[in-house]
Specification:
This protein has helices at residues 40-47, 138-156, 172-183, 195-203, 214-225, 242-249, 292-302, 304-308, 320-328; strands spanning 2-10, 13-20, 28-38, 61-69, 81-84, 87-88, 108-109, 121-125, 129-131, 164-168, 187-192, 208-211, 231-234, 255-258, 277-280, 311-316, 336-340. With 342 residues, it is an alpha/beta fold. It folds into 2 domains: 2-131 and 310-340, Quinone Oxidoreductase, Chain A, domain 1 (Alpha-Beta Complex); 153-280, NAD(P)-binding Rossmann-like Domain (Rossmann fold, 3-Layer(aba) Sandwich). Helix 4 links the parallel strand 11 (187-192) and strand 12.
Length: 342
Amino acid sequence: MKSLSATWTDSKVLNIEYINLSDPQDDEVQIKVGSAGICGSDLHYIRGDKPVTVGSIPGHEIGGFASAVGKNVKHLKEGDLVGIEPVVRCGVCRFCITGAYQVCGDRGLVGEMFNGGMSEYINVPGYTAFKAPNGFDSELAALAEPLSCSAYGLERINLRSHENVLIIGAGTVGLGALIGVKAMGASSIVIARHPKQKETAFKLGADEVLGDDEPGRDRLNELVKVHAFDAVIETVGGHGDTLNQSLESVRPLGRVLVLGVFFSKVSIDAFYLLDREMVGAVLYGNMKGKPNFQMALDVINDHKESTRSLVTHRYKLNDVQTAFSSAMDKSKESIKVHLQIN
Ligand SMILES: [Zn+2]
Ligand SMILES: [Zn+2]
């Protein structure tokens, strides 16, 4: 069959073209994509931090309907709404068999090593497709992917309800972490740069929102002095100094959770590691008998409309280039930009 798709032509341009798509293999499911989100990591291709594969289709935040189901895929039937956990893995290595498939040496991501969801149809391994709860639509199902990282990360830092968290950054990852933190009953203070981010952080229940400016820094210093932060969640990544800011801000014996993706070596003041802990969570898995992706679906199920408020811009597939521009330009007040495909 033919599937209209966005394909990389060079680092800054996406083409719209029909590609040939085969029927799904026995272990695969074919998805009629409803929504595909643009992730910050997709923007790194445009910024030149990562090389593109010409002809490949981006998109690893995918919600849609099963349009054909391979005969070995038993947990789905045609017409089911699913979210895609885009981590393709070997399934047999020592990490995979303990559910830590996010560190499988043979892993590859749908939307990176494999064609992604910015296409009318896509074939994916059956195990990547999670049936969405009742009352979901494609948009909510696609949002489970960016929220899965924080589901995993919050598990790793053992966040407890009486604790206070500083979240650095208020893009989708930061605000998604905020939804997770609030769902666990903890308090949170968010550092946000843009007006729309600040407004959304308040709406999602942040106890305080600080600007990335002089008054914000003064207030942060006040709070740091009294050891206000049991945990800090870093969500900015890139090339900045937010790892040091996290280590300086968390109280002694506190935990730093790194959700941001860094693209260059950054130096940290390792002295802080004597009495502070730092863990990263860029992907997610199933280490405790319940996949982090399923946790994210369940959190969204309880917070549908607040999660949906992360989506600020919606475009048709043909407007993919404009969609990427909106995602790049935070002055356009974008948080999560979605393509609405079918
Ligand atoms: Zn992503
Ligand atoms: Zn493996």
